[in-house]
Amino acid sequence: MAFTLAPLPYAHEALEPHFDTLTMQIHHGKHHQAYVDNLNKAVAGTSHENDTLEQLVASAGSISVAVRNNGGGHWNHTFFWESLAPNAGGAPSGKLADAINAAFGSFETFKEKMSTAGITRFGSGWAWLIKDAEGHLHISSTPNQDNPLMDVAEVKGTPILGVDVWEHAYYLKYQNRRADYLAAFWNVVNWSKISERL
């Protein structure tokens, strides 16, 4: 069964002024759609054409570069859209807040470290908040469309929150100011969804 692009869980303009409408239209409708289309082409007629997206991502490094790039792109973006919401942001509460404080000392320190992981990722990639096998939280980053679930990940874990630092995610509004984009990101984080993942 072919993979498909799900609609955004909110309107393209819903994250204004932090994420602009045109970027959301292009990012979701063009970039994410291209990952879906290219993933379908990459697995068609192969022994992996009936694998789930999670199965493809987990073994992406041993399948093909096309599956690694496009399977990762599809998984990462689906995860990213669900991590965002209009009228969101602020600070987490409950068990998530406790876990962040235990791991990083404070929410502000966590935000600083997560933003730094995104700012210092050379070229294109992602910054992640992940949970390890023991349930502890860590921050990591991955190149291109890799993620911490992949067999090729330097730091493995279960993603809880991820932020896209490819230029296509922010260049129309923020140009080369990745730090400004990451500062805006905190205004649209859907903490209730992140809490569910924990």
Structural features, described:
The protein is mainly alpha-helical and 198 residues long. The chain is built from nine helices and three strands. The protein has helices at 21-43, 53-58, 60-63, 65-82, 94-104, 107-119, 171-174, 178-185, 191-197, and strands spanning 125-131, 137-143, 158-164. A hairpin with a 5-residue loop joins β1 and β2 (137-143). The longest helix is centred in the first third of the chain and has 23 residues, at 21-43. The chain starts with 20 loop residues before the first helix and ends with a helix.
What would you say about this model in short?
By secondary structure, the protein is mainly alpha-helical.
Features:
198 residues; mainly alpha; 3-stranded antiparallel sheet; 9 helices; 3 strands; 47% helix; 11% strand
Mean pLDDT: 97
Beta strand %: 5-15%
Strand order of the largest sheet: 2-1-3
Computed structural class: mainly alpha
List the helices and strands and how they pair.
Blueprint: H1 21-43, H2 53-58, H3 60-63, H4 65-82, H5 94-104, H6 107-119, E1 125-131, E2 137-143, E3 158-164, H7 171-174, H8 178-185, H9 191-197
Antiparallel strand pairs: 1-2, 1-3
Helix pairs in contact: 1-4
